[in-house]
Design a protein that fits this description.
Elements lengths: L9 H14 L22 H6 L13 E6 L5 H11 L3 E6 L8 H11 L5 E5 L3 H6 L21 H8 L9 E2 L5 E6 H7 L7 H13 L5 E3 L4 H11 L4 E4 L2 E4 L4 H15 L3 E3 L5 H9 L4 E5 L2 H8 L7 E5 L16 E5 L6 H13 L1 H11 L27 H9 L11 H16 L5 H18 L8
């Protein structure tokens, strides 16, 4: 579950980021406000309203239009086919590629400047603030039909896309990513291992699996948000704000705990360095070289589609706990559909984005084809989410993730430059995998560079 910043600090955060946006030259591009706020506030305030510029203009285009939509969700083209069949005058062209942190976001930034970015793009909640600082999001607040769907969404997801502003809507929530644990039930049973309930049990299981010639998990330098999901579960924070200053804490106790844990797994060769989403990795899941994937609900469709020969051999359990007896969960991912500021047909783009993420037929198709866990209350009650899945041995996995969603700490603020922070951590992790330093060193280096990045954009930050 993507979080919001506590009530009482949102006004200060919005003002800080509005100042930062002005200081780095934001403002003036078509459809954006030029101010920025914190992802994840609990509500709008007077300061937020004063910081925001008037909403963008959003008028229908005369005649047929074709929109371009970028997403990495598998099977979303089939959902788009439903829209295109019903809307001959507003056709959507589907463009796919790597997930946002793996290059797509930077391409979007470049495309916005050049005027050739897609009209709509899938953007994760944690990266919305980075796009806001780049003046890359269209304000949809005066696009007919957009404000009206607010009550359909789980409240915190709507706050994520408004930045706490009363007159700003910068994306439409799509899905959330509470984490569970996928595991090869057949291999666990054969090895006499029960699904681990704590991370210490997970480590002990890893040693048994190693003797069996496998690995309990992989470690990908690019999956920083996966790593952060475990810090989130442990109660850690990378960012906080007090008064008029941000505090960056990538090296806090919980972050060190998670870094030390996975460094041990790497040093003892219990976790295999490997890029997620690679053909090699999918094969490792299918053949039994990798025995688990700690991942959200959306992973279930990906495994089924990319490791089909392992059908019926998987099961899902609760995410291992850092402290025995607890039920804490982390979150990995969750996305929005944003209309980029260079879009030429904002009304039509907003209409499609709203339908895609709030219409029950669309939500059912998103779940069926892409395995998404909806951001709307109605979507989370769909019968399709509560049914036995043959691929997972007939298990109804929905209860695992609904319980996880309820146990994710909502008080988890995102920083204003998450894209850069992720990039810096990713580079450090890649070096650590090659034996140049360790994961804890990578977090320390990323903390210093994040503080420097905030200062360079005139965002008040403590320390450094």
């Amino acid at each position: 579950m993507k979080p919001w910043i506590r009530r009482g600090v949102v006004g200060a955060v919005t003002a800080i980021l509005a100042l930062a946006s002005a200081a780095c030259g934001s403002g003036g591009s078509t459809g954006s406000t030029g101010s920025t706020g914190s992802t994840g506030s609990t509500g709008s305030t007077g300061e937020a309203s004063q910081a925001a510029a008037p909403p963008s203009k959003c008028a229908p285009t005369e005649g047929p239009v074709t929109l371009e939509y970028y997403s990495w969700v598998p099977g979303i083209d089939k959902v788009i086919d439903i829209w295109n069949a019903k809307n001959p005058d507003i056709q959507v062209k589907f463009v796919t590629g790597p997930a946002g942190p793996d290059g797509a976001y930077q391409n979007f930034f470049n495309g916005i400047k050049a005027g050739n970015a897609p009209d709509l793009a899938q953007i994760e909640y944690d990266s919305l603030s980075s796009f806001r600082l780049q003046d890359g999001l269209l304000n949809l607040a005066d696009c007919a039909g957009v404000p009206e769907v607010k009550d359909k969404f789980v409240p915190w997801t709507w706050q994520q896309v408004t930045f706490g502003e009363s007159d700003g809507i910068y994306a439409i929530p799509q899905d959330i990513g509470p984490i569970g644990m996928y595991y090869r039930a057949d291999l666990f049973e054969k090895a006499g291992i029960k699904p681990p309930t704590t991370w210490e049990e997970y480590y002990e299981a890893a040693k048994v699996i190693s003797k069996e010639g496998g690995h309990i998990h992989h470690f990908a330098s690019g999956d920083v948000n996966w790593f952060l999901g475990q810090i989130w579960q442990a109660g850690g924070r990378w960012f906080s704000v007090s008064g008029d200053q941000w505090t960056v804490s990538l090296t806090g106790a919980e972050s060190q705990q998670v870094a030390t844990y996975w460094q041990r797994m790497l040093d003892e060769k219990l976790a295999r360095p490997m890029a997620t989403w690679s053909d090699e990795w999918w094969k490792a899941l299918e053949t039994g070289d990798i025995w688990t994937w700690v991942s959200p609900y959306w992973a279930n469709a990906l495994i089924a589609q990319n490791a089909p020969k392992s059908a019926g051999k998987w099961a899902v359990a609760t995410m291992p706990q850092w402290t025995a007896g607890q039920k804490a969960a982390g979150n990995w991912g969750g996305s929005t559909t944003a209309v980029l500021s260079s879009a030429k047909h904002p009304f039509e783009a907003a209409k499609f984005a709203t339908w895609l993420n709030s219409d029950l037929e669309a939500l059912q198709a998103l779940n069926e084809n892409g395995g998404l866990y909806p951001a709307t209350a109605e979507g989370q009650q769909m019968p399709a989410l509560s049914k036995p899945l043959d691929f997972y041995g007939g298990q109804d996995i929905s209860g695992i993730f609904s319980e996880a969603a309820a146990n994710v700490d909502p008080d988890f603020p995102w920083g204003p430059t998450m894209t850069q922070t992720y990039s810096d951590v990713r580079d450090g992790f890649a070096a650590a995998i090659e034996g140049k330093g360790n994961l804890a060193d990578a977090l320390g280096s990323a903390q210093r560079s994040t503080i420097d990045a905030l200062k360079s954009q005139s965002i008040p930050v403590a320390g450094g």
